[in-house]
Automatic annotation (TrEMBL):
Keywords: Membrane, Transmembrane, Transmembrane helix. The keyword Transmembrane applies. This is Diguanylate cyclase (GGDEF)-like protein/PAS domain S-box-containing protein. Signal peptide: none annotated. The keyword Magnesium does not apply. Residues 23-273 form the EAL domain.
Length: 274
């Protein structure tokens, strides 16, 4: 039994080594990916709930890995956050998204996700401004999506950065609303321009009376606080009807459009089409 235990231990240790090696490899791959432009952005439309007028796009990062194919952000954004690559990754995304939006002939919004770790840079607002200037994009075209963990980590610093960003004319959206553990305190701490209701709620307005009540409550909260409300993850006509009836401001989801390369949206971002 003792020998068997040792054996199990050896196999387990070998598996750990393999996982660590795989991780190191992915890490150095990711470093190269950022330098050599293997990252790419997909864009998901955000539209007004009633008229389905195009408001803008959310930029979502993907990694076009030479051997592994298209890797979703859920696998490499957390890795980038752990190994210190989130700063260069975040700047790459912001620069690429702003450059793209600067080519559009319609003044649509471009929404970019920021990692809470990017707020560790005290000069984040100045960095964002420099990227906007370099891209030739008006700050009023940019929306930054942040989760409440930003405010929880280092409240004073985060609030001061957010105030500077807002003063520049950049709008700030609170992402994944309702999934954190102090969402209401976060709303009290900072005047967000928009609240994005997490798709965990939106996806259940049909089957779950509780989810419907929560979505209605968030819409009421947004109205009372003067913040726009966006519903994420709208997949069915029923969900759309519910959100229209409840006067939700904007929607985003597979029903309207999946995240895709911007070329797929060319006819909507130029000229007067919608
Ligand atoms: P998120 O910011 O909440 O983005 C929404 C996610 O929901 C996206 O997944 C999008 O493809 C997906 N989605 C949109 N509509 C629907 C729908 O109708 N149904 C379903 N089932 N899903 C829908 P994605 O692109 O895989 O991104 C996942 C997460 O990765 C994002 O969640 C965000 O937290 C993070 N992420 C993506 N791009 C960036 C980035 O550039 N920087 C940072 N820091 N994080 C990013
Ligand atoms: Ca987002
Ligand atoms: Ca979200
Ligand atoms: Ca999310």
């Amino acid at each position: 039994a003792k020998a068997e235990g040792r054996n199990t231990h050896r196999i387990f240790a070998a598996a750990m080594d393999a996982a660590a090696a795989e991780r190191r490899e992915l890490e150095s791959d990711l470093r190269r990916a950022i330098e050599e432009n293997e990252l790419t952005l997909h864009y998901q439309p955000q539209v007004t709930t009633g008229g389905r007028d195009l408001v803008g796009f959310e930029a979502l990062v993907r990694w076009q890995h030479p051997a592994r194919g298209l890797i979703p952000p859920s696998t490499f954004v957390p890795l980038a956050e752990e190994c210190g690559l989130i700063m260069p990754l975040g700047e790459w995304v912001l620069r690429a998204a702003c450059r793209e939006a600067a080519t559009w002939t319609r003044p649509l919004k471009i929404a970019v996700n920021l990692s809470p770790l990017q707020f560790q840079q005290a000069d984040l607002a100045e960095r964002v401004l420099a990227i906007l200037a370099e891209a030739g994009l008006s700050p009023t075209r940019l929306e930054l999506e942040i989760t409440e963990s930003v405010i929880i980590n280092d409240m004073e610093r985060a609030l001061s950065i957010l105030r500077r960003l807002k003063a520049l004319g950049i709008s700030i959206a609170m992402d994944d609303f309702g999934t954190g553990y102090s969402s209401l305190a976060t709303l009290q701490a900072f005047p967000f321009d928009k609240i994005k209701i997490d798709r965990a709620f939106v996806g259940h307005v049909e089957g779950s009376p509780q989810a419907a009540v929560i979505v209605r409550a968030v819409l009421g909260l947004g109205r009372s606080l003067g913040m726009g409300v966006v519903a994420e993850g709208v997949e069915t006509p029923h969900q759309m009807r519910f959100l229209t009836d409840e006067s939700c401001d904007e929607v985003q989801g597979y029903l309207v459009g999946k995240p895709q390369p911007i070329e797929r949206f060319t006819r909507y971002i130029h000229g007067a089409g919608r």
